[in-house]
Each structure stands twice: as C-alpha cells, then as structure tokens.
Amino acid sequence: MSEFHVTVVRAGESAERTVRTGTKAWELFADDPDVVAAEVGDQLVDLSYKLGAGDVITAVLIGSGEGLAILRHSTAHVAAQAVQQLFPDAKLGIGPPIEDGFYYDFDVAEPFKPDDVERIQSQMRRIVKENQQFSRREVSDDEARRELSDEPYKLELIDLKGSSHSDDTEVEVGADQLTIYDNVTRDGSVAWKDLCRGPHLPTTRRIPAFKLMRTAAAYWRGDDKNKQLQRLYGTAWPSKEDLDTHLEQLAEAERRDHRRLGVELDLFSFPAEIGPGLAVFHPKGGVLRKAMEDYARMRHEQGGYEFVYTPHISKEQLFQTSGHLEWYADGMYPPMHLDEERDSEGNIRKPGQNYYPKPMNCPMHILVFKARARSYRELPLRLFEFGTVYRYEMSGVVHGLTRARGFTQDDSHIFCTPDQLAGELASLLTFVIELLRDYGLEEFSADLSTRPDNFVGDPVDWDIAEAALENALQKSGVEYAVAEGEGAFYAPKIDVHVKDAIGRRWQLSTLQVDLQFPDRFDLTYQTAAGTRERPYMIHRALFGSIERFLGILVEHYAGAFPPWLAPVQVVAIPIAERHGAYLNQLAERLRSRGIRVEVDDSDERMQKKIRTAQLQKVPYMLIAGDRDVEQGAVSFRYRSGEQDNGIGVDEAVDRIVKAVESRTNV
RNA sequence: GCCGGCGUGGCGCAACUGGCAGCGCAUCCGACUUGUAAUCGGAAGGUUAGGGGUUCGAGUCCCCUCGCCGGCUCCA
Question: Which of A36, A227, A233, A633 has its CA 20 to 30 A from that of A210?
C-alpha cells in the first residue's frame, strides 16, 4: 500500500496532504458539508473521485456558480426519478440547471396537473430523505443504448454524440465517454438511473432546499417541429433561507409587475376591444410618458439630431425594396387593400394598392435622406423620430408593455461617411449610456453581435463595421461580451443591457451598422472631390420602445418615480375645509413653476388623504392646518414618511422645484 | 402559432357535490371638519367574457370563439 501527496485547495487556501492509494476525494472534505464536488485540473469531478499522485484538488463549494449548478442538476435528477416513479410511462428528455434552478422534460401521456406537481414534490422529499447515493459509472455506447432502450430521447442523444449538431442542443452527453449515474439506496439497490455527464452531489440528502415551481410545455430540443414535452421547473438552494430569499424576490417582482401597477396607478390599459398588445395611456401614464419624451427630445436636440415625422402606413413597394416583405412578412400586420376600381361587370379596371402598417421606421428615414441630393458637408445627418410601429407578434408572446404589437421607437438613423463611422459610434454609445443614467439606471453591460451565417453584403464591410463597434465599446468602458453570429442578417450590432433595482437585466438600446439598406435604396452623397459615395447608415434605438422602457421604469422604481417623472409630484392636503383656499393658492404658485400638483379637497379625513397619496406613491405632500396658515407655512411630508413641519411656503416651493429640476430621486 | 391554466360590478375576492349572484375597496349622495397610512350612514353598480348545448334548473357540466396568465418557439 503506497502513499503519495496531493494538493488540496479550498476557498483559495491550499495545503499538502499525504494520502493512501484508493483514497476518494470526499475523504478530504469529510466534515465539510459545503463541498459538493471537486475540480481536478480543469475537470469537474464527483467527490467519489479516486485521488492520483500529484493531483491538485479544488473544492467546489455549494454556493459557487458551479456548486449551484451541480446542486440544481442533481435536484433535476431527483425530480425525474420522482416523476418516473409516479408515472412509469414517462420518458426522459433533458434536465439541465438554469438560472436560479433547473428543469426536466418528460414525454408523458397526460400533461401534468397542478395536483401532480404537489405529488411529485412529496415524492422528491422522500427521495431526498432516503439519502440515495449518486453513483457514477462509465459505459460504452452500446451498453448505454442497451440500458436505456426504453428511453427514446436518451437514445437520440447518444446517436447525436459527436455529430455537428451536438452543441446547438442542450445535450448533456458532451464527452466521448458516456457515463450513467445510478441512484443507489442504502441497501445497495439501484432506484433509478440516468445518462449524464455529471458531476453530482454525493447523495440526495445534500440537497438543502428545493421547490417545484411550475409546469409548461417545451419542444423537444427547442424545435417547434418536434413533439412538445412536459417541462417541470424547479429551484434549489444551499439553504432554506436562500430559498426563502429567492421566493421573496419573486414575490417582489410580482408586486412590481408593471401590468399590475399600471392598473393601480391608473397609467395605462389594454382594452380588449382594441386588440392584444395595443395599449392606451391614461392621463397619469400620459403625463409620465410625456415627461420621458420631453427630456429625451431636449437631449436629442442638444446632441445634434434633427427631428422628422413619417406616416404609420406605406404602400407595399417600400417594404419590397427594404426587404421586409421578403424576410419578415409574418411579423407584419396584414395590409389593407385600397383603391381598386371595377367596371359594371365587376372586372378590375385599376388594380389596387396594398398599404402596410410599418414595422420599422428605417425605410421612411431613408426616403428623407433621399429626398434630395446630399453633400458630404451635411454628414453626419442624424434623423430622429418617435416613430410608432406595428408588429404582428405571435399571440403567445404578447406581454404587457414589454412585448406589445404597437409601440413607439425612439428611433434614429445616422448617415455618415466611412471615416466618420468610428467616431460617430463612440459618441453615440456615450450618449446612450448618459441618457439612460439620467433615467435612473446605473449598471450597464453590452453584447456585440457579429455576422450570422445568413447575411447580406460584403464580408469586408462586416469586418469594418464590427471593428468600429468594438472600438466604441472599448472606449465607453462598458463591460461587453461578443455574441458570435447573433447579428441581424443586415447588420452587426451592440445591444446595451441595464440592471434594474432588483437585479434583473433588460435589453434596451441597440446600435446597428446597416450593411444593406444603403445599397438597396442606392443611397449616395457627393464628396469634396465631386464623386458619389455610399454613406454608412447607423440604426439606433435608445429606449428601444418608449412603452417598454416605461414599463421597465415602472418595475425599476416599483411605481415610486423620481419627482421629475412622477405623474403627480405634489398633493396638497388641507386638514379642514377652511384650509383649502390657502393650499390652492400655494398650488397655483407651484403650477406656475411647472410642478404637477393636486389639491385633495375631498370630503375625507386628512389621514385618509395621506394614505391615498402614499398609495399613489406621490413624492411630496404639503399639509396645512390652522397653525400653518397662521405662520405662512406648510408641513412637508416625503413619500418615505419623513416629515418637516412648519416649513415656510417659499422654502417648500424651492425645495420641490429644485428636486424636480435636478432629476434626482428624493 | 403550440401546450397547460384562468375569465364573477372599475379593482381585489366569495358562492358546498348544479338550487335566490354576495363581500371589501373605489364611485355617487348625506352627515362629520378632524395635525401625518383607512370617520359614519345610505345609494347605485352584474345578460357571471361572448355564443351554443345538456338539465326542471348552469357562475358551476360539455363544445366553439374572444381575452388574459405561465412556459415553448419567436422578438428585423
């Protein structure tokens, strides 16, 4: 029996250990429940890994990214075992870890019912309690096929192994060597098994906290031509407290849901009479939207943009030229057919015209550029419009303001010379980030999406454009990732993401260098030398969609907007009826300074009025009774509940005006 | 578009296995005139999303349509 040295690393601290041949990794961490797996070299292994001479073993902690993934994936196995025990005919799909949890897909005769989820969860608890061991075993392809002959989807995965398709699926098979994990009970029998790359927790008991969340249908391998399987979603965490925190975050997200707050704060609605995904803005939502737009307008004016206005519909030909009808007809509302004339026999004398609602503003802005000959002296030409577009989104995807069928882009198209391109992109990106900051968003990241397989134009132009975009990103200092092949067919792009107040990431702005439209529309400008050149064209949406951005801000602020955006900035509350005139006078003063103020002279108690204003998340309340009227003062109450009594009227007006103008959230 | 769930006054909800559609908030009217998150009393408001069917009888069971929700696919 020989001995050798290994290096053990845990949380950054390494130590030498002497071990005997055959020692398993878990013996190194026997009294350390946070260690769920290990890393040897760059290979993740189970704790059942047999140590070799000179190994450097790094502990994988349950709270780390990898540790969580292992926990969640192991929980997915438990879910699958539970399902197959309760539904013996269920066939296994795949069961990967995802953000905050896991899912597992099953082919079952009947979709899961809410009741079934309860039963599955109880069964999972039983399995966890049984403390089954996750036991790894290497198998040949043939052995795997034989053992999993009842699992058609697993067989398909085995067949896919090594094929060129294997990385665009979530296939777990990956490596050349197939492995099967057995769930072994204490008496040594195998309760369940699954084809899996691993690694896993040592035992099911090591799952501290989990919950099944919901069921849904999902296409096998994500392809809508394939059969739909039943997907079971769950979440798993290192502790009960972590699980509770997660559930509380979900509840918080639900409380902030802009569809709910939109009703509570009377901002907007989606009348069924109009149609799905088509919002109407009520006065409160209207004023909020107007404040957002006004500020953006002002900044665009300062930024050298020129404002244009274009129609909502256009003849078919325009979208033929732009290529929209060729590429995206499904995403467009069907046309209205106009102008057809028939003779008395009903024969068509003059063919009609199809008019489509526009799905984008670009072709219209291009026509503005093309309206006359353009000189290099005019470039860069920055056209801007709040342009309302209509897209016939599939019925299942429409979602409040964040995915609507009619929405307004803060759309800009910039035409520039080749040597202006890089500079223009860099200043654009800065402009975008600065403006988003002004709306209260603080954390940004970006994706650079490059040439897809299916593209138009000259690869050389793509390279130039991609380089210019990347350069802009580097100058901006925004953290970014390259999304290889994710660009639109006509343009590489930068997508800017923001993080909201509860940590969710939203994609907002896009910057695209268009490599198709200038050609398609034969755009040119005249150079200093008198020659004609093709301009570069940049698409830029900042909010993306005003409606969507508004929805995101509602959720970001949970409806408690900073004063400059709040639909009602001040509510004045007279303690008794006789104080009404005093406050109305003050309100008039505020109004003359551009403040949105309401006087609540309803027949209610003061306390009730405070409550109402509080629930409407109004930033400031000005309350006045006899004492205040005598002193020419008001009692100043913030949304936070803090108050300053006996503030002089001038001081109160000043404070409010200052807060609104500074666009800070007080 | 696909799978599942849901649809009761403006909003939030109730109505046992099929048996008189009800409550709270909001609204309107009246009284009260109050010092920092809900004053009291009264009234009005519903073809139970729409249509069809089963039944002596349907909010409840069945079918179709519309809409919404959760996912999948999609998001130029």
Answer: A227
